[in-house]
Design brief:
Helices cover 33% and strands 15% of the residues. It is an alpha/beta fold and 349 residues long. The strands form 3 sheets. Strands 1-2-3-4-5-8-11-12 form an 8-stranded parallel barrel. The protein has a two-stranded antiparallel sheet with strand order 6-7. A two-stranded antiparallel ribbon has the order 9-10. The longest helix is centred in the middle third of the chain and has 17 residues. 47% of the residues are buried.
């Protein structure tokens, strides 16, 4: 359970001006010049446009980075010759075979990376959110073998190998300087951290202030969660925190420093805010627009603990996904509807 300093929860109700904007602006132009923003292309849906149209939508909106969760053939073909940087996932269900056999890793890299030499692959995410459970033991060895395969293919200088984790790995997160990893996750984390340090690869972190907020509404304000607090909310020694995004990120940096990973950079491989589902007060189009718009502006700079350098960040997700299981909010994280119209406008000017 994530604990933050107590402050008032403030409801965020769309203003008349916002409603007019929602009616009047037909396209959300995502301008990433000078920013560090990508968008995750999830496809747990049966009504999405063809991949070539999706790539065109990225280009039309000047989205320069993409994350996909497995080697999606039509997307990889559509990305050929484009300038879009890609984070490509190695499927969770493939990890055991890859961890056990270098030939399996070599084959995966040949079929999904080398075969797409004119796709701008930047990261390979070896597994997604499997810090515990039956697959966790295979992540570190699979990363090593995928790295070997990348090196053999002469691509080690171009492509970084990592894995995507989420805040369940933290034992403590408040205040951020006390950030530490759970002992029962160290058997998974220590080899991963060692690998990342040796290979100068970033840690990938799926991080959602939304989930921290809805779990702790008595002690976290909505303003703090969506970047609209007018002043510092949490003072942590020399560091002042005005938003939950920075506090969560710096808690992970503090934990890394305690675990031999102080040299590592974190890439926020997922973040977002649902526009529907839930109670209808927190999960609104306006709150989603405010959060994602502020993420795009905010990540041009650093955090209190790591100032000065941009925070490479991937918004989740490009589309609402109608087949995702769980709470109905899971179906409503998209920036666009499947018909390619924007769920809400995002203004970066």
């Amino acid at each position: 359970m994530h604990k933050m300093a107590k402050s008032h929860v403030v409801a965020n109700v769309p203003s008349v001006v916002s409603k007019l904007l929602l009616l009047g602006i037909l396209m959300a132009t995502i301008t990433t010049t000078g920013a560090q923003i990508g968008v995750c292309y999830g496809d747990v849906a049966d009504n999405l446009p063809p991949a070539r149209e999706v790539i065109s939508l990225y280009n039309q909106n000047n989205i320069k980075r993409m994350r996909i969760y497995y080697p999606k053939r039509d997307a990889l073909e559509a990305l050929r010759g484009s300038n879009i940087e890609l984070m490509l996932g190695v499927e969770n269900e493939r990890l055991q075979a890859i961890a056990s056999n270098q030939a399996s890793a070599d084959d995966w890299v040949q079929r999904n990376v080398v075969a797409y030499g004119n796709v701008n692959i930047k990261y390979l995410a070896v597994g997604n959110e499997i810090e515990s459970g039956p697959f966790a033991q295979y992540v570190g060895p699979a990363m090593e073998k995928i790295q070997n395969a990348i090196s053999r293919a002469g691509l080690a200088n171009r492509i970084k190998v990592s894995t995507a984790v989420h805040p369940v790995i933290l034992q403590e997160s408040y205040p951020p300087s006390k950030g530490s990893f759970r002992q029962d996750h160290r058997a998974f984390l220590d080899p991963v951290i060692g690998f990342l340090v040796r290979n100068k690869s970033p840690l990938l972190l799926n991080m959602y202030p939304y989930f921290s907020y809805i779990s702790n509404r008595g002690s976290i304000s909505l303003q703090y969660a969506v970047f609209t607090s007018p002043s510092v909310v949490v003072q942590d020694g020399q560091y002042g925190y005005q938003n939950l995004f920075d506090a969560l990120l710096d808690a992970h940096y503090a934990a890394l420093e305690k675990a031999g990973g102080g040299s590592l950079r974190i890439v926020v491989s997922e973040t977002g805010w649902p526009s529907a589902g839930g109670d209808g007060q927190v999960t609104t189009k306006e709150n989603a627009r405010v959060y994602n718009s502020n993420v795009i502006k905010h990540v041009k700079g650093g955090t209190p603990r790591r100032p000065g350098s941009p925070i490479e960040t991937y918004l989740f997700a490009m589309f609402n996904e109608n087949l995702k299981r769980g709470d109905r909010t899971e179906n409503n994280f998209g920036l666009f509807y499947p018909n390619k119209s924007p769920v809400y406008p995002i203004n970066f000017n």
